[in-house]
What does this fold into?
Amino acid sequence: MAKTLYDKLWDSHLVEQRADGSALIYIDRHLIHEVTSPQAFEGLRLAGRAPWRVDANLSMPDHNVSTDRAERAQGMAGIVDPTSRVQVETLASNVQAYDIPGFSMDDPRQGIVHVVGPEQGATLPGMTVVCGDSHTSTHGALGALAHGIGTSEVEHVLATQCLVQQKMQNMLVWVEGSLPVGVSAKDLVLAIIGRIGTAGATGYAIEFAGPAVRELSIEGRMTVCNMAIEAGARAGLVAVDQKTIDYVRGRPMAPTGQMWDKAEVAWRELVSDPGAEFDRRVDLDASALKPQVTWGNSPELVLPVDENVPDPAQESDPAKRESMQRALEYMGLEPGQAISDIQIDRVFIGSCTNSRLEDLRAAASIVAGHHVADSVKQALVVPGSGTVKQQAEAEGLDSIFSAAGFEWREPGCSMCLAMNADKLGPGEHCASTSNRNFEGRQGFGGRTHLVSPSMAAAAAIHGHFVNLQNHSEA
Amino acid sequence: MQQFDSHQGVVAPLDRANVDTDLIIPKQFLKSIRRTGFGPNLFDSLRYLDEGAIGQDNDRRPRNPDFVLNKPEYSSASILLARENFGCGSSREHAPWALLDFGIRCVIAPSFADIFYNNSFKNGLLPIVLDDEEVAELFIAVKSAPGLELAVDLAAQTVIDNDNQRTYRFSIDEFRKNCLLDGLDEIGLTLKSSAAIKAFEARQRASSPWLYPEQSA
It folds into this structure.
């Protein structure tokens, strides 16, 4: 029978199918960060259990680390908030106690787990990948089955190398055409979420496919899979192709020699079979897309940049009307206001969605020769990893950003969720390349607008959103 | 894990869709390395009018009198009623920990986000899916009679509103139900399959040796 990519990944990791419908699934790679792991290690310790397989884990701190250069240079002492410091220290002592491999805060390879995993070849096609972090869906861009888990499951994976799972359903998101100039992978995934809604793929694994997805780089595919969870899907997937193989080859933890040859043969099978059946299919045309901007407090509240904030009075469903009104109130926006008239206080370019080299290049190409608008209080560029930072600096991107008035920071999650010192003040509007515009996500009372790196860069320069398709910078 | 068989308590109506886990427990409280103590900061940005910080004396903070859990009739609520897609967003298990720490044992909604749903079971918090019409009916019932109690019976898979003589049936998968009823240690259960896990590893090591780097080196 023809199988989907998800079916193949599921079948190849099935340890045990149980009569009650649950299944034991083997986990090849477990990524660990400091926020969701302390209670799991404590549970392990209290039960007197040891990790099942130490070398399947890779750890690094990312959420609480300072992105300020001077603070970072001081190591642990540079984390000003004592509760953040305890969390980073707890990870360090736990991984030391159990001899778990990883990158400490001062390792040049440290960064956001979802940037570092693929970059180091720690996540590979065909793997099952989990992490106590919902954006683990990112790794599906390599043809891996990757999803977020809670802390109890972090403990479960540490202790057993397995998870008890129910099989998800299959959804195909097929994207025809080519993305127009000025429209990126971020705009594509925001448009998909706008179409199917924030719960549209709950219970599904989404496979993103079609000519426009094939045209995306692996980094662009990571951006798309990263936000599968914002449509409710725990896992996003893209089939393996030549780009996948080329991306993985030569990565520090990727196989080499004969082992590589063997792996490559297996990885090329990681595609949905012709005729494989999906439980649901959604079709989009990439060539019709425009740059996207979220205007509300959920990623599904998104519109093309040249449109206007919707009017709740036009909404017939009372529950939807009320939630639109609440969103507009929180966001401080008026019905009918042009998206391009939204004034921006801060700009954040970073996060596991958009902090890779390609993202920074796209933003820098808009910024070059311009300066951040006087009305913008702060514009941050936070590379996703030490490796991205080094590569960007080698290309001179840091100089372009600095000359334009951006702050060039050290790698970490930063203002995506503001667990460190990088945050919005109450009422401030932020053009952000991150993944969630929930209330308070980037700081108490902060107002997040999710956009692509190019759109964030342009907003920094103009002080408000602009349609890149009408601007010479694009 | 905390066992769950049946529960009767006051139901609080949180009339909102897409309640995300950032709203349930904001990020500044995730810096704790413990599983307990999150209750006072459950729905922090809705319950209080100021910005919350870890380790604060919450009794001294200005409360939002309009927020449902601040109303006297719901101060002892142990069942939460909400709209669709409850628990979306971040995978933080601090969300069910905070609900439990506050005293909530059940959340009733038309749908839940996958990760939150799963995390709840690991902690003895029962998420109950009823259909849209049933949830709408319960919202009407509780709003017309604040302080309404519901009786939840996991074994029978029912929610009973005695005041209105209504019984709602819910479905739940067998594995999760049994784990909750028995308060099972899921890890202990999985470790009973150690031989199967080792056999899987032996097969995978042969077919995909690159996944076992010590061998491929």
Remarks:
- Chain A is about 30% helix and 15% strand.
- The two ends of chain A are 47 Å apart (CA to CA).
